[in-house]
């Protein structure tokens, strides 16, 4: 049986009512708007589950996101839903519109179902480029050579 791991967007866009949903506690914290809270209550009453992600899987997500350069784009909630999807393995389908989340998920072989936007087309490894001296780096905010800000760039497609 497929388990659909729900990002906050599932409740914002009122999707997934006909699916077996699992989400994480931090998604509950993000559903502050009245209609979103109501959508969350409906989901819980119809069988959705809230589960804390295993710290071991959370650590795997952080490691992979650091490797892809997506770590700066991911919130704690993003890391939690990715960890929960990884924890469920082949039975999981991650429902999200977040492109950084989709990028990390695709690198880990997690199935993705977009909610209201299109799916990412390419897997990307991100890097940084200095806006001053144009040197390239893997991460950081400021150039260690000239002190200028670093800009996110696509390093390569996979």
Automatic annotation (TrEMBL):
Membrane spanning stretches: none
InterPro entries assigned: NOB1 (IPR039907), PIN-like_dom_sf (IPR029060), PIN_dom (IPR002716), Ribonuclease_PIN (IPR033411)
Pfam family name, one: PIN_6
Cellular-component GO terms for this entry: preribosome, small subunit precursor
CDD domains membership: PIN_Nob1-like
Keyword hit for DNA-binding: no
Domain called PIN: residue spans: 2-103
Record-level Gene Ontology MF annotations: hydrolase activity; metal ion binding; RNA endonuclease activity
Keywords on record: Hydrolase, Metal-binding, Nuclease
Top-rank taxon: Archaea
GO BP terms: maturation of SSU-rRNA
Alphabetical list of Gene3D superfamilies matching this protein: 2.20.28.10, 5'-nuclease (3.40.50.1010)
PANTHER family xrefs: RNA-BINDING PROTEIN NOB1
Protein name listed in UniProt: Nucleotide binding protein PINc
Phylogenetic placement of the source organism: Archaea, Methanobacteriati, Methanobacteriota, Stenosarchaea group, Methanomicrobia
